[in-house]
Amino acid sequence: PGLQAGTSWLHRDLVFLTTVVAMLLLCTSAAAPRFPPDCSHLRKNSPSGVYVIQPARSPPRVVWCDMDTEGKGWTVVQRNSHDTELNWKQSWTTYKYGFGNVHSDYWLGTEYLHLLTQQGTYKVRFVVRDKTNVTHFAEYDIFRVESEASGYPLRLGRHSGDGDDYLTLYHPKKGGIHDNMKFSTVDKDQDQYSGNCAKSYGGWWYHRCQNILLNAKNYIVWPGFCDNGDCAASLILVKPTDVC
Questions:
Q1: Alpha-carbon span 232 to 244, nearest angstrom
Q2: Cα–Cα distance between 43 and 226 in angstroms, integer?
Q3: Residues 6+ positions from 40 with CB-CB distance below 8 Å
Q4: Start-to-end C-alpha separation, the chain
Q5: Where does the pLDDT of residue 30 fall: very low under 50, low under 70, confident under 90, or very high at 90 and above?
Q6: How much is the mean pLDDT over the chain?
Q7: Alpha-carbon span 235 to 229, nearest angstrom
Q8: 3-state helix, strand, coil in the chain (%, to 5)
Q9: 3-state secondary structure string, 146-214?
Q10: Across-strand partners of 124?
Q11: What is its main location (predicted)?
Q12: What's the half-sphere exposure (Cβ side, CA atoms, 13 Å) at 28?
Protein backbone atom coordinates (compact mmCIF):
# COMPACT_ATOMS: atom_id res chain seq x y z
CA PRO A 1 0.00 0.00 0.00
CA GLY A 2 2.85 2.40 0.83
CA LEU A 3 4.44 1.80 -2.56
CA GLN A 4 1.12 2.33 -4.32
CA ALA A 5 0.52 5.57 -2.37
CA GLY A 6 4.01 6.81 -3.18
CA THR A 7 3.51 6.02 -6.85
CA SER A 8 0.20 7.87 -6.82
CA TRP A 9 1.79 10.96 -5.24
CA LEU A 10 4.68 10.80 -7.76
CA HIS A 11 2.22 10.61 -10.63
CA ARG A 12 0.28 13.65 -9.35
CA ASP A 13 3.53 15.58 -8.84
CA LEU A 14 4.64 14.83 -12.39
CA VAL A 15 1.28 15.92 -13.80
CA PHE A 16 1.45 19.14 -11.77
CA LEU A 17 5.05 19.82 -12.84
CA THR A 18 4.23 19.18 -16.50
CA THR A 19 1.26 21.57 -16.29
CA VAL A 20 3.40 24.30 -14.69
CA VAL A 21 6.13 23.93 -17.33
CA ALA A 22 3.55 24.06 -20.14
CA MET A 23 2.02 27.22 -18.68
CA LEU A 24 5.44 28.86 -18.33
CA LEU A 25 6.31 28.03 -21.92
CA LEU A 26 2.97 29.41 -23.09
CA CYS A 27 3.46 32.62 -21.12
CA THR A 28 7.02 32.99 -22.39
CA SER A 29 5.87 32.43 -25.96
CA ALA A 30 3.03 34.92 -25.58
CA ALA A 31 5.35 37.51 -24.07
CA ALA A 32 8.00 37.11 -26.76
CA PRO A 33 8.23 40.23 -28.95
CA ARG A 34 6.93 39.95 -32.49
CA PHE A 35 9.02 42.07 -34.80
CA PRO A 36 7.70 43.46 -38.11
CA PRO A 37 9.03 41.83 -41.32
CA ASP A 38 10.23 45.23 -42.59
CA CYS A 39 9.91 48.95 -41.88
CA SER A 40 6.72 49.36 -43.90
CA HIS A 41 4.79 47.80 -41.02
CA LEU A 42 5.64 50.65 -38.63
CA ARG A 43 3.02 53.25 -37.85
CA LYS A 44 3.13 56.07 -40.39
CA ASN A 45 3.79 58.64 -37.66
CA SER A 46 6.82 56.71 -36.36
CA PRO A 47 10.07 58.68 -36.55
CA SER A 48 13.04 57.63 -38.64
CA GLY A 49 15.52 55.69 -36.56
CA VAL A 50 16.75 52.32 -35.37
CA TYR A 51 14.24 49.46 -35.20
CA VAL A 52 14.30 45.67 -35.08
CA ILE A 53 12.74 43.76 -37.96
CA GLN A 54 12.49 40.04 -38.67
CA PRO A 55 12.00 38.90 -42.25
CA ALA A 56 10.53 35.43 -42.73
CA ARG A 57 13.02 32.63 -41.89
CA SER A 58 15.47 35.23 -40.57
CA PRO A 59 16.70 36.05 -37.08
CA PRO A 60 15.82 39.57 -35.84
CA ARG A 61 17.91 42.31 -37.50
CA VAL A 62 18.63 45.85 -36.35
CA VAL A 63 18.06 48.35 -39.17
CA TRP A 64 17.50 52.01 -39.84
CA CYS A 65 13.91 52.74 -40.88
CA ASP A 66 13.46 55.80 -43.10
CA MET A 67 10.09 57.39 -42.33
CA ASP A 68 10.85 60.69 -44.08
CA THR A 69 11.45 59.70 -47.70
CA GLU A 70 8.41 59.81 -49.98
CA GLY A 71 6.04 56.98 -49.16
CA LYS A 72 7.54 56.34 -45.70
CA GLY A 73 8.31 52.88 -44.35
CA TRP A 74 11.58 52.30 -46.20
CA THR A 75 14.08 49.76 -44.87
CA VAL A 76 17.63 51.04 -45.29
CA VAL A 77 19.77 48.12 -46.47
CA GLN A 78 22.88 50.13 -47.35
CA ARG A 79 24.37 53.45 -46.34
CA ASN A 80 27.78 54.77 -47.32
CA SER A 81 29.63 58.06 -47.17
CA HIS A 82 32.56 59.08 -49.33
CA ASP A 83 34.99 59.39 -46.42
CA THR A 84 33.61 56.40 -44.55
CA GLU A 85 35.61 54.53 -41.93
CA LEU A 86 34.25 51.26 -43.31
CA ASN A 87 36.40 48.98 -45.42
CA TRP A 88 34.10 47.74 -48.20
CA LYS A 89 36.65 45.19 -49.43
CA GLN A 90 35.14 42.51 -47.23
CA SER A 91 34.86 38.74 -47.61
CA TRP A 92 31.87 36.84 -48.96
CA THR A 93 30.89 35.74 -45.45
CA THR A 94 31.12 39.27 -44.05
CA TYR A 95 28.89 40.60 -46.83
CA LYS A 96 26.53 37.67 -46.32
CA TYR A 97 25.79 38.51 -42.69
CA GLY A 98 26.32 42.29 -42.83
CA PHE A 99 28.66 44.81 -41.23
CA GLY A 100 28.95 48.43 -40.13
CA ASN A 101 26.83 50.59 -37.83
CA VAL A 102 23.16 51.35 -38.54
CA HIS A 103 23.66 54.84 -37.08
CA SER A 104 26.16 55.61 -39.85
CA ASP A 105 27.44 53.40 -42.70
CA TYR A 106 26.44 49.76 -43.02
CA TRP A 107 25.48 46.79 -45.18
CA LEU A 108 22.44 44.79 -44.01
CA GLY A 109 23.76 41.47 -45.32
CA THR A 110 23.31 39.78 -48.68
CA GLU A 111 21.57 36.81 -47.07
CA TYR A 112 19.12 39.11 -45.31
CA LEU A 113 18.52 41.00 -48.55
CA HIS A 114 17.59 37.64 -50.05
CA LEU A 115 15.28 36.68 -47.17
CA LEU A 116 13.73 40.15 -47.05
CA THR A 117 12.87 40.20 -50.76
CA GLN A 118 11.54 36.63 -50.74
CA GLN A 119 8.60 37.72 -48.57
CA GLY A 120 6.73 39.39 -51.41
CA THR A 121 7.26 41.91 -54.19
CA TYR A 122 9.63 44.72 -53.22
CA LYS A 123 10.78 47.91 -54.88
CA VAL A 124 14.08 49.70 -54.38
CA ARG A 125 15.36 53.25 -54.42
CA PHE A 126 19.09 53.81 -55.03
CA VAL A 127 20.01 57.27 -53.74
CA VAL A 128 23.15 59.39 -54.01
CA ARG A 129 24.01 62.85 -52.78
CA ASP A 130 26.50 64.65 -55.02
CA LYS A 131 29.33 66.90 -53.84
CA THR A 132 27.05 69.96 -54.05
CA ASN A 133 24.61 68.21 -51.65
CA VAL A 134 21.96 67.64 -54.32
CA THR A 135 20.17 64.30 -53.96
CA HIS A 136 19.42 62.04 -56.94
CA PHE A 137 17.70 58.66 -57.13
CA ALA A 138 16.79 55.74 -59.35
CA GLU A 139 13.77 53.66 -58.37
CA TYR A 140 12.91 50.19 -59.69
CA ASP A 141 9.43 48.77 -59.18
CA ILE A 142 10.81 45.26 -58.61
CA PHE A 143 13.83 44.41 -56.48
CA ARG A 144 14.90 40.91 -55.60
CA VAL A 145 18.12 39.20 -54.51
CA GLU A 146 18.17 35.49 -55.24
CA SER A 147 19.72 32.76 -53.08
CA GLU A 148 23.33 32.22 -52.13
CA ALA A 149 23.33 28.94 -54.08
CA SER A 150 22.67 30.95 -57.26
CA GLY A 151 25.24 33.62 -56.36
CA TYR A 152 22.89 36.29 -54.93
CA PRO A 153 22.05 37.69 -58.40
CA LEU A 154 20.23 41.02 -58.62
CA ARG A 155 16.76 41.26 -60.23
CA LEU A 156 15.34 44.67 -61.09
CA GLY A 157 12.10 45.88 -62.67
CA ARG A 158 11.15 49.13 -64.44
CA HIS A 159 13.17 52.28 -63.87
CA SER A 160 12.05 55.74 -62.81
CA GLY A 161 13.85 58.72 -61.31
CA ASP A 162 16.19 61.49 -62.38
CA GLY A 163 19.04 60.55 -64.69
CA ASP A 164 19.49 57.64 -67.07
CA ASP A 165 19.08 53.98 -66.19
CA TYR A 166 22.55 52.61 -65.52
CA LEU A 167 21.49 49.45 -63.70
CA THR A 168 19.22 47.57 -66.12
CA LEU A 169 20.44 49.01 -69.44
CA TYR A 170 23.68 47.87 -71.06
CA HIS A 171 26.45 50.49 -71.28
CA PRO A 172 29.42 48.96 -73.16
CA LYS A 173 31.67 52.01 -72.72
CA LYS A 174 31.34 51.82 -68.95
CA GLY A 175 30.84 48.66 -66.91
CA GLY A 176 28.19 46.88 -68.95
CA ILE A 177 25.13 46.12 -66.82
CA HIS A 178 24.16 45.29 -63.22
CA ASP A 179 20.73 43.68 -63.52
CA ASN A 180 20.93 39.85 -63.34
CA MET A 181 24.58 39.95 -62.32
CA LYS A 182 25.83 37.78 -59.47
CA PHE A 183 27.36 39.34 -56.37
CA SER A 184 31.16 39.43 -56.21
CA THR A 185 33.57 39.93 -53.29
CA VAL A 186 37.34 39.95 -52.88
CA ASP A 187 37.34 36.19 -52.22
CA LYS A 188 34.51 35.16 -54.56
CA ASP A 189 34.85 36.47 -58.10
CA GLN A 190 31.57 36.12 -60.03
CA ASP A 191 31.88 39.04 -62.46
CA GLN A 192 32.45 38.74 -66.22
CA TYR A 193 35.71 40.66 -66.25
CA SER A 194 39.14 39.07 -66.68
CA GLY A 195 40.13 40.32 -63.23
CA ASN A 196 38.24 40.65 -59.94
CA CYS A 197 36.36 43.97 -59.78
CA ALA A 198 35.66 43.59 -56.06
CA LYS A 199 39.38 43.58 -55.23
CA SER A 200 39.61 47.13 -56.52
CA TYR A 201 36.45 48.46 -54.91
CA GLY A 202 34.18 46.28 -52.75
CA GLY A 203 31.35 43.75 -52.95
CA TRP A 204 28.79 44.53 -55.68
CA TRP A 205 26.79 43.17 -58.63
CA TYR A 206 29.52 43.58 -61.22
CA HIS A 207 29.62 42.87 -64.93
CA ARG A 208 32.77 44.41 -66.46
CA CYS A 209 33.10 46.15 -63.83
CA GLN A 210 30.49 48.85 -63.03
CA ASN A 211 28.33 51.67 -64.28
CA ILE A 212 27.18 52.58 -60.78
CA LEU A 213 29.05 51.68 -57.61
CA LEU A 214 27.92 52.47 -54.06
CA ASN A 215 29.96 49.96 -52.03
CA ALA A 216 33.44 51.49 -51.95
CA LYS A 217 35.61 53.69 -49.77
CA ASN A 218 36.34 57.17 -51.19
CA TYR A 219 34.64 56.19 -54.46
CA ILE A 220 30.86 56.47 -54.93
CA VAL A 221 30.17 56.74 -58.64
CA TRP A 222 26.99 57.59 -60.54
CA PRO A 223 27.30 58.67 -64.20
CA GLY A 224 26.09 62.20 -64.82
CA PHE A 225 26.10 63.10 -61.14
CA CYS A 226 29.53 62.04 -59.90
CA ASP A 227 31.47 60.48 -62.77
CA ASN A 228 34.74 60.69 -60.85
CA GLY A 229 33.46 58.75 -57.86
CA ASP A 230 33.08 61.88 -55.76
CA CYS A 231 29.46 61.49 -54.59
CA ALA A 232 29.19 62.50 -50.94
CA ALA A 233 26.90 59.65 -49.82
CA SER A 234 24.63 56.81 -50.90
CA LEU A 235 21.57 54.92 -49.67
CA ILE A 236 19.69 51.82 -50.79
CA LEU A 237 16.07 51.77 -49.58
CA VAL A 238 13.54 48.96 -50.04
CA LYS A 239 9.85 48.49 -49.31
CA PRO A 240 6.94 46.36 -50.58
CA THR A 241 5.32 47.34 -53.84
CA ASP A 242 1.91 46.65 -55.40
CA VAL A 243 3.44 45.31 -58.62
CA CYS A 244 2.54 41.64 -59.15
A1: 35
A2: 36
A3: 73, 74, 75, 239, 240
A4: 72
A5: very low
A6: 90
A7: 15
A8: 20, 30, 50
A9: CCHHHCCCEEECCEEECCCCCCCCCECCCCECCCCCCCEECCECCCCCCCCHHHHCCCECCCCCCCCEC
A10: 140, 238
A11: secreted
A12: 6
